[in-house]
Amino acid sequence: MQILDQAVEAIRKQSVTGRANGKQLAVTLEAIATCGDHAARLWQGYLDNPGAAGDKYTIVSWIGAERAKQLHELSLQTHALVKDVCTATGDQARFLVLDESPIALAYRGLKDGETGPQAAQSLLAAQQATNKHLRALADKLRVIKPVAAKPAAKAATKPAAKKAAAKAVKKKTAAKKKTSAKKPATKKAVKKAVKKK
After folding, report:
1. Closest Cα partner for 62 from 121, 128, 106, 127?
2. Distance separating alpha carbons of residues 43 and 39, to the nearest angstrom
3. What is the rounded distance in angstroms from the CA atom of residue 27 to the CA atom of residue 38?
4. Residue 89's pLDDT is what?
5. pLDDT of res. 71
6. 146 band by pLDDT with thresholds 50, 70 and 90
7. Is residue 33 a contact partner of residue 68, using CB atoms and an 8 Å limit?
8. In terms of domains, do 126 and 186 share one?
């Protein structure tokens, strides 16, 4: 899955700034691989007991609608998890396009002369390879060490505190200037009133 390769690479680059939580995303990739394990068991279940032959056009006619439905439901679950991983890339997410499902589905047609068990065998092998790759990606994210939050927080608060102190000083001096400017005006008004009397 090219999209997950790109997402993991973007997340690894972001880990330098401390914006990525590698362990949490590794758990998500592991969950996708677990769904893939379940899909592999469905394919293996068919291979263990193939049943009656289907037509020469579709795999679904060989493995049955119920297995095909279960594979589709697993694909929908993993689609949401893949979105979560891509969303974690932040701004890069808009460039990631879901290219394929990490679940080997039963919707492709049979090749000329291919039987259902032959197709199932190749899809099972593809699913197992995908699961292995997903776990390798999870391992890449698992080794990301989170950047310490305290030094970053201190660095962020010091300039903010300095700015706030500078604003407070400016407000105080502005207030003093206004009050000092008002005092002579009020004194003049009092003197004029006294003179008139």
Report:
1. 106
2. 6
3. 17
4. 78
5. 95
6. low
7. no
8. no
What is the distance between the alpha carbons of residues 169 and 57, in angstroms, rounded to a whole number? 80
Indicate whether 129 and 153 sit together in one domain: no
> Same structural domain for residues 118 and 153?
no
Predicted confidence at residue 94, as pLDDT, reads 64
The structural domain count of the chain equals: 2
The answer to whether the CB of 122 falls within 8 A of the CB of 130 is no
- Cα–chain-centroid distance for residue 89? 5
d(Cα 51, Cα 66) in Å, to the nearest integer? 14
Beta bridge pairs of residue 58: 109
Residue 178: domain span: 149-197
Which residues pair with residue 109 across a beta bridge?
A: 58
Q: What gap in Å lies between CA 80 and CA 101, rounded to an integer?
A: 11
126 and 59 co-located in one domain: yes
φ, ψ of residue 58 to 5 degrees: the values are: -125, 150
Residues 89 and 182 both lie in one domain: no
- Give residue 169's identity as a one-letter amino acid code: V
Q: What is the pLDDT of residues 65-91, one digit of tens each?
A: 999 999 999 999 999 898 888 888 777
Confidence of residue 171 (pLDDT cuts 50, 70, 90): low
Tell me what pLDDT residue 150 has.
47
Single-letter code of the amino acid located at 181:
A
The pLDDT value given to residue 164: 63
Q: Locate tokens 């197709």: which residue? A: 119
User: Is 84 within 8 Å of 28 (Cβ atoms)?
Assistant: yes
